[in-house]
Amino acid sequence: MKALKDPANRQSDLITIHSRSVEHPLQVTIMVNVRFLPDDIVVTAAPGEPLLQVARRGGQSIPTGCLRGSCHACVVESDCWGTICACITAIPDHDLCIELWNDPTW
Ligand code: FES
After folding, report:
1. pLDDT single digits (tens) 84-105
2. Nearest CA to ligand 1 atom 3
3. Which of 25, 30, 33, 83 would suit a FRET pair with 100, their CA atoms being 20 to 30 Å apart?
4. Interval between CA 100 and ligand 1 midpoint (Å)
5. Domain assignment present for 24
6. Distance of CA 41 from the midpoint of ligand 1 (Å)
7. Which residues sit with their C-beta closer than 6 Å to ligand 1?
8. Domain total in the chain
9. Which residues make Cβ contacts (< 8 Å) with residue 89, sequence separation at least 6?
10. CATH number at residue 94
């Protein structure tokens, strides 16, 4: 107990605690599966990753225009959110299924 009251020892305890948290960060990387239909291509992605980037990695083409959520050129159908603009959508923390539409007018 006497050692804890000594300011010099207290400072060294704080430094030790800080360095432990840096050495062992509590980060867990969760990966999810994104299934693209109708080709039935499954791509592994990290939550928060842009949907367009994941689609591109899987060789899936989603048309784009404004890339700001206004023109709706990138509209796809998702199993959990319904119709969404792919350009402003990030991967959630659970598996996702995306139906790509093939609209010949775009
Ligand atoms: S590219 Fe225009 S809304 Fe997505």
Report:
1. 999 999 999 999 999 998 666 6
2. 69
3. 30
4. 14
5. no
6. 22
7. 64-67, 69-74, 85, 87
8. 1
9. 50, 51, 78, 81
10. 3.10.20.740
